[in-house]
Amino acid sequence: MEDLTPDLGDDRTLLLVDDDEPFLRRLARAMEKRGFDVETAETVAAGKAISTARPTAYAVIDLRLGDGNGLDVVETLRAKRPDSRIVVLTGYGAIATAVAAVKIGATDYLSKPADANDIMNALLAKGDALPPPPENPMSADRVRWEHIQRVYELCDRNVSETARRLNMHRRTLQRILAKRSPR
Question: Which domains does the chain have, with CATH numbers?
Fold first, then answer.
């Protein structure tokens, strides 16, 4: 079995903030295997409380949480621990939010779904060096399908509203939704 533990230094504390509970559990287990001491939170309030009480050396914070914006947690952690390395995760990749995240102190910005290796590479990237590109990036078809699914869920699974927001014919959308996800 390969050794997954990188050189994390003396402080191995990692805060994970995400409201997707199954994803949060999987990521926490994967990061513990890589040598991190993990604390988790599912809300902005819990993330800010942990950041204030026990500021961590590393953090992975989802942008959109049930009770607000993950950037509030980034600001709190950055104020308490300026040297922390923070990665913002989101399923809503947009240039404006990436710029906002980096401006307030995020080290990197990754779109979901990101795997534990991508996250670890982003957390441990030295200085201004960019982490290596992902080993198996999503295909363009998969990215499109993920985006359509996300908008569909945000529209409470209303096909007509989703089609309107995506500027797509309703029947075309129905055909896409009926198919399996691309690889």
Answer: 13-124 (3.40.50.2300), 140-178 (1.10.10.60)
DSSP 49: H
Helix (H) or strand (E) holding 176: helix 170-178
Please state the three-class secondary structure of 64-88 as a single string. Answer: EECCEECHHHHHHHHHHCCCCEEEE
Q: Which residue has the tokens 């240039």?
A: 95
Per-residue pLDDT tens listing for the chain (183 residues): 444 445 556 788 999 999 888 889 999 999 999 999 999 999 999 999 999 999 999 999 988 888 888 889 999 999 999 999 999 887 765 666 777 778 888 888 887 778 888 888 888 877 655 556 666 676 778 778 778 887 887 888 899 999 999 999 999 999 988 887 776
Looking at the whole model, is its pTM more than 0.70? no
176 phi, psi to nearest 5 deg: -65, -45
**Would you call the peptide bond into 182 cis, given omega within 30 degrees of 0 as the criterion?**
no
Contact assessment for residue 8 and residue 32, using Cβ atoms and an 8 Å cutoff? no
Q: Residue 167: which region, alpha, beta or left (left: phi > 0; alpha: psi -120 to 50)? A: left
